[in-house]
Specification:
Keywords: ATP-binding, mRNA processing, Nucleotide-binding, Nucleus. This protein has five helices and 17 strands. It is α+β, with helices and mostly antiparallel strands. A seven-stranded mixed sheet has the order 14-13-12-15-11-16-17, sandwiched between helices. Strands 1-10-3-8-5-6 form a six-stranded antiparallel sheet. The longest helix has 20 residues, at 89-108.
Length: 279
């Protein structure tokens, strides 16, 4: 792993080896331009277009990963940029393969029982800055590449990946998530909580999660394709005390059958520990 450092000025070229990634934090004032010169690479599971510059907004953190090797260029100011040879991507793609098999079994099920036709309902939990949102985006994008249309559920009222902070929301994902535009907003289901922490009214938060779960259940009952594709659920980074209680409530209310637990990650160094539970 090369050392992290800020950089600016003309285009800088990085030759990435197999299964390595370039980790970047964009500067505070201006966007960063990124170009794939050769090979193949992706940002959070979405492939970069070859030979085209894309613009990443200020203050964004992202990683450009390659499975088979690539050359990429950066142009603009960054707070941090470095190449990491040790990444969790192999573990992540193995999780994706298991989820894909469960979706296929659910789709092929001829049983009238809803449980057997239900695809994976994956909830990703872990402390702040453990990579939950990034893993959700990768799992969703990889599923879309396989032809599935999973539902993304965002329970993190502090950030708001689908809409603004202070809301819980869900939306179907039909295409790999754009590295710049983020989650599509065509037909989201949104419940307004009004605060960025559930401690203001934990009971209201639980009520909204229950309402969202009931709405999704009605949709899945009438749509076998969406039911087989399942859902990926992002959660808050509060994992102790009341936060832990709310995580258990979400797992139960949304009938999550796969729980992915990410460990703490040091900023710009180390990889998340991942463990899984399923039923």
């Amino acid at each position: 792993m090369s050392s992290a450092a800020a950089a600016a000025g003309p285009a800088r070229q990085f030759n990435l080896a197999t299964e390595s990634e370039l980790r970047v934090e964009v500067g505070q004032e201006s966007p960063l331009r990124v170009r794939l010169v050769s090979g193949t690479a992706e940002i959070f599971g979405t492939e970069l277009p070859p030979e085209n510059w894309i613009s990443i907004p200020p203050r964004h953190k992202f990683a450009i990963f390659t499975w088979h090797g690539a050359t990429v260029e950066l142009e603009g100011t960054t707070e941090v940029e470095y190449v990491a040879d040790e990444t969790p991507m192999v573990s992540y793609v193995n999780v994706h393969a298991i989820l894909d098999a469960r979706r296929s079994r659910a789709k092929a099920s001829q049983s009238a029982e809803l449980d057997s036709s239900q695809g994976p309902r994956v909830i990703v939990v872990g402390p702040t800055d453990s990579g939950k949102s990034s893993l959700c985006r990768m799992l969703l994008s990889w599923a879309c590449k396989q032809g599935w249309k999973p539902t993304f559920v965002d329970l993190d009222i502090g950030q708001g990946s689908i809409t603004m902070p202070g809301c819980i929301a869900a939306t179907p994902i039909e295409l790999p998530i754009d590295a710049v535009e983020g989650i599509p907003l065509e037909i989201p289901i949104v419940y307004f909580y009004g605060h960025t922490t559930p401690s203001v009214s934990a009971e209201l938060y639980k009520v909204l999660v229950k309402e969202l779960a009931q709405t999704l259940e009605r949709q899945f009952t009438g749509n076998a394709e969406s039911r087989a594709a399942g859902m990926v659920i992002n959660t808050m980074g509060w994992v102790e005390g009341l936060g832990y209680e709310l995580l258990l409530h979400a797992i139960d209310t949304l009938n999550a059958n796969v729980v992915l637990v990410l460990g703490q990650v040091l900023a710009y160094g180390g990889n998340p520990l991942i463990s899984a539970w399923h039923r």
